[in-house]
Structures are given as structure tokens and as C-alpha cells.
Amino acid sequence: MANKDKENGNAVSGEIAEEKEEKFTFATFLYDWSGTLLIAGAVLLLGMAFFCRQITVNGNSMNNTLQNSDRLLVLNFMYTPQCGDIVVCTHGEKLPEPIIKRVIAVEGQRLEIDYMNDRVIVDGEVLDEDYIKGMTIRLPNSTQIPDVIPEGYVFVMGDNREDSLDSRSRKVGLIPVENIIGKAVYRIYPFERFGTVG
User: Fold this and answer.
1) C-alpha distances in angstroms, 170 versus 20, 95, 140, 175?
2) Is 101 annotated in the active site?
3) Which of 34, 49, 144, 166 could serve as 157's disulfide partner, Cβ 3.0–4.6 Å?
4) Is 21 helix (H, G, I), strand (E, B) or coil?
């Protein structure tokens, strides 16, 4: 009888040991995965800080391409402005808030705005601007546009040409490349319009 109890006791302790081992294994698994997820999250946040950022559109100057309150993902790592890119830029004390505009001409390019015929001409070619809203008008306080965009600068305009404060105005003028935060690449909100921008 004592032997039977002993055997039963051994069986019970064996089961308890197995349960403990299972619990320990599951707890270890959870611990390992939570650590991995935390590291991955930290790497993602660092990547977001260095490579891209989120910007919310404020105003109507980029209608109909972008709408007020659209949220955009802006890439800023090793970015070089190209004609046609939608960029987010600052302009020191002149512009307290970042602005979102389209690059029309970059350094070394010849630029002419033919206000009479509503045409923008870059390097002798009339731009095909199917994205614009309204006419390209001369703004109040308009600035003198140089024949050739100087080194280190870009000329930007909003797609809503009749309601955009941009490089046509003295208040903005040419944008130094160093003041470009990055290129808008994705609209991440509202969800029904999620996708690339351009």
C-alpha cells in the first residue's frame, strides 16, 4: 500500500513538474517576444524620426491634389528636390509654419511665367500641368523671378494657383534647399483617399 502511495505521489509530482515546465516555457516565450517587439518598435520610431515624418495639410493651396486636413507621410532622408515633387518646406522667420507646395524649377533651370497666356515655361518647354486648379495669376507683392534659378534654391507654387502664397510672392520667394523638410509621398488619412501623392 505504501508502495502504491509512493507511486501515486511520484505520478502527481511528475504532473506538477510538467505543468510548471509548460508555464515556464510559455512565460519565457512571452517575455522573449515582448522584448523583440519593444526593440522593433524602438527601431521603427527611430527610423520614422530620421527617414520620414507625418505632416497635416493646413489650407487649400494644394487643391485639388491635396485637401485641408489630409495627413501625409513625408520622406526626408537623402532627399534631392526634383521638378514636380510636392514638398514641405520652411522659410525661417518669414514663414512661421511649414508650407506644402510643388517644385516648379530647381537650380540651373530657366523659368518663365507667362501670366497673359496662363503658361509656365521651364527650360523653353511649356509645362503640362493637368494638376492645377484655377489660373496662374500674378500675386499681390509679386517678386521678380530670376531668369535662372540660382544654386541652392528652388521655385515652388501651389496647385491652387489663385489661392496660394508661394514663390511668386515676396513673402515667400525662392526656397533654399536646406529649408525643404522632405517630399510628400503618401496620403495616410483620410483612409478613403489613402495612397501615393504626386
Assistant:
1) 75, 12, 9, 11
2) yes
3) 166
4) helix
Residues 29 and 68 in one domain: no
Which residue matches cell numbers 522632405? Answer: 182
Kindly name the residue from 6, 20, 34, 61 that is annotated as catalytic.
61
Q: Do 63 and 44 fall into the same domain?
A: no
CA 101 – CA 60 distance, rounded (Å): 11
Number of domains, the chain: 2
Identify the active-site residue in 101, 164, 167, 183: 101
**95 and 168 assigned to the same domain:** yes
| Residue 32: all three cell numbers together | 522573449
Give the chain's end-to-end CA distance (angstroms, integer): 85
pTM over 0.70, yes/no? yes
The C-alpha cell of 173 is what? 520667394
How does pLDDT run across 118-134, given as a tens digit for each residue? 999 999 999 999 999 99
> For residue 148, what are the domain limits?
57-196
Q: What is the pLDDT of residues 5-63, one digit of tens each?
A: 544 455 545 555 455 555 557 667 666 677 677 776 555 555 555 578 899 999 999 99
Greatest C-alpha distance within the chain = 111
